[in-house]
């Protein structure tokens, strides 16, 4: 199969055109995102985390929300050789979700709306979305399959 050109909304005609198939279907997406509520008046984000978990649970999409916080060291702008501790407890921990692109992006949107409704004046969000078309990804297994593959490689290293 080959990708087709799109010129002014008219695609090249070809029976084996992969592009039209992709356009007509909803891509399966594996995403992780991190919401950072700003202007809540509190250093706690427990309510916002719980609200996002409720939203994600209601979508029916597979998701994971790791709750083990790690401290990240970032260089300070004043002195790049000195590091300041960045406290990730100020963040809504990365949420990993997967499913049809439209549903995943709607879930992220709905988390934003819910956190604003909780009183956050601003929200900064980092989003990473991966898709693939070279093979089928079993629904709900995208992240798990990636982890299993890496664990298998590491297990082989130990046997060597």
TrEMBL record:
<dbReference type="GO" id="GO:0005829">
    <property type="term" value="C:cytosol"/>
</dbReference>
<dbReference type="InterPro" id="IPR051614">
    <property type="entry name" value="UPF0045_domain"/>
</dbReference>
<protein>
    <recommendedName>
        <fullName>Thiamine-binding protein domain-containing protein</fullName>
    </recommendedName>
</protein>
<dbReference type="InterPro" id="IPR029756">
    <property type="entry name" value="MTH1187/YkoF-like"/>
</dbReference>
<dbReference type="Pfam" id="PF01910">
    <property type="entry name" value="Thiamine_BP"/>
</dbReference>
<feature type="domain" description="Thiamine-binding protein">
    <location>
        <begin position="98"/>
        <end position="138"/>
    </location>
</feature>
<feature type="domain" description="Thiamine-binding protein">
    <location>
        <begin position="31"/>
        <end position="65"/>
    </location>
</feature>
<comment type="similarity">
    <text>Belongs to the UPF0045 family.</text>
</comment>
<dbReference type="InterPro" id="IPR002767">
    <property type="entry name" value="Thiamine_BP"/>
</dbReference>
């Amino acid at each position: 199969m080959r990708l087709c050109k799109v010129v002014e909304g008219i695609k090249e005609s070809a029976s084996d055109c992969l592009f039209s198939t992709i356009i007509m279907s909803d891509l399966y997406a594996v995403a992780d995102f991190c919401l950072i509520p700003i202007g809540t008046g509190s250093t706690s984000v427990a309510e916002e985390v719980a609200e996002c978990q409720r939203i994600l649970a209601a979508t029916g999409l597979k998701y994971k929300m790791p709750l083990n916080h790690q401290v990240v060291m970032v260089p300070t702008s004043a002195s790049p050789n000195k590091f300041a501790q960045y406290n990730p407890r100020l963040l809504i921990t990365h949420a990993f979700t997967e499913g049809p692109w439209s549903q995943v992006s709607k879930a992220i949107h709905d988390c934003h709306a819910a956190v604003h409704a909780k009183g956050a004046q601003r929200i900064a969000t980092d989003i990473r979305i991966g898709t693939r078309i070279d093979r089928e990804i079993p629904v709900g297994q995208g992240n798990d399959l990636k982890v299993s593959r890496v664990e298998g490689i590491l297990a082989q290293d130990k046997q060597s």
